Amino acid sequence: MKVYDVSVPLRADMPTYAGEPGPQLDFPSRLSRGDAFTISTLSLGSHTGTHVDAPSHFLDGAPGVDNLPLDALVGPAYVAEFGGDTHITAADLDSMAIPGDCQRVLFKTRNGRFWDDSAFHTDFIALAPDAARSLADRGIRLVGIDYLSIEQFQASPHEVHETLLAGGVVILEGLDLRRVASGGYFLVCAPLNVVGAEGAPARTFLIDQNP
Amino acid sequence: MKVYDVSVPLRADMPTYAGEPGPQLDFPSRLSRGDAFTISTLSLGSHTGTHVDAPSHFLDGAPGVDNLPLDALVGPAYVAEFGGDTHITAADLDSMAIPGDCQRVLFKTRNGRFWDDSAFHTDFIALAPDAARSLADRGIRLVGIDYLSIEQFQASPHEVHETLLAGGVVILEGLDLRRVASGGYFLVCAPLNVVGAEGAPARTFLIDQNP
């Protein structure tokens, strides 16, 4: 068994969507200042780094991150590599070897290289609206991508998010898939269970059961 | 396969160690106020709810939560039920059916009932120093408990924490084990990977592979 951490480290200078403030760590108590122990407090946007979107992110009154189904977050997943340089369309999905019974799919694209840079890049690969429709229609439970949004920058309306969230698909954004090859894994996506939040940072592991 | 969420929900009125401020959720953008989407920011102590302690919590200059080994956080674990009403001693460990090859042990005690209350209880069951020594000597990689500290309230010195952390044992505190029976599971402890922090909230799942 081999465990891959496909989440990005949280640090103040990390890239964030549209340059939102990064995570902030403060130390009310610190050994190096003579205190008896070190204690920090953390502040961050709920969509920082590797994170999930819940339906309430775009759908007023819909369930929050505390109501995401565990059986969508945990289970077999397929990493699909996309070599193209445009948004992923429904036709692109048909050309990928996504297994017919796949319930969780993570897209590995050229976005990965953006993690080397603390600036936010707007020209990331995302899903086209017809791909979102196709994934929801297939009964996919969770869809992930390797940069900070599943939808192209400044889309209006937010058709991709709305289609997926209304279709009961968990959106997992901000993955770093550079170290994993395409293929099947066991996914554990573990968002903080923040009551009433529309998203949450999520440490995410891919377990290769037959390395 | 059955997945148990053994982490506690994060909410403003949850019990916190010594009554520290609870998590705070703010909404810079909100659908219900006419914004195009809902976005929150989260602030919380790094030792809120279900969380891990890294060596740097008590050992100056030691590794932080971003250096916890994945192979301690993920793997087979044993839930050991303790029926006593005092701190768990090394002799108590010997009377539990902890398998000899066990690397991760989670203690289920009468603490669980405290989660029903938003007040912090100081009379929680913890490890006695000789139990911490015994676990470190056995080569345990991770030890968990079902309330907010592995060490009795206001211990001085912090012998239990120091023994475990110096021994390379990951400490997992704030579990809710009420829904799981004693026995073997597959543990996935997924702390936020906060660079430079001495602890982090950790969504934690126990997977029963033969339910």
Strand content of chain A: 25-35%
Kindly report the greatest chain-chain contact and the residue count on each side. Answer: A-B, 56 and 56 residues
Q: Mind telling me the CATH superfamily name of chain A?
A: Putative cyclase
Oligomer: homodimer
What percent of the residues of chain A sit in helical stretches (DSSP H or I)? 10-25%
Order of SSEs of chain A: EEEEHEHEHEHEEE
Judging by the overall fold, what is the CATH architecture of chain A? Answer: 3-Layer(bba) Sandwich
In DSSP terms (H or I, runs of 4 or more residues), the helix count of chain A works out at: 4
Give structural notes.
Two copies of one chain form a homodimer. Chain A is 13% helix and 28% strand. With 211 residues, chain A is α/β, with parallel strands linked by helices. Chain A has one domain: Glucose Oxidase, domain 1, CATH 3.50.30. In chain A, the strands form two sheets. Chain A has a seven-stranded mixed beta barrel. In chain A, strands 2-3 form a two-stranded antiparallel ribbon. Chains A and B meet through strand 3, strand 9 and strand 10 of A and strand 3, strand 9 and strand 10 of B. Strand 3 (39-45) of chain A pairs antiparallel with strand 3 of chain B, so a sheet runs across the interface.
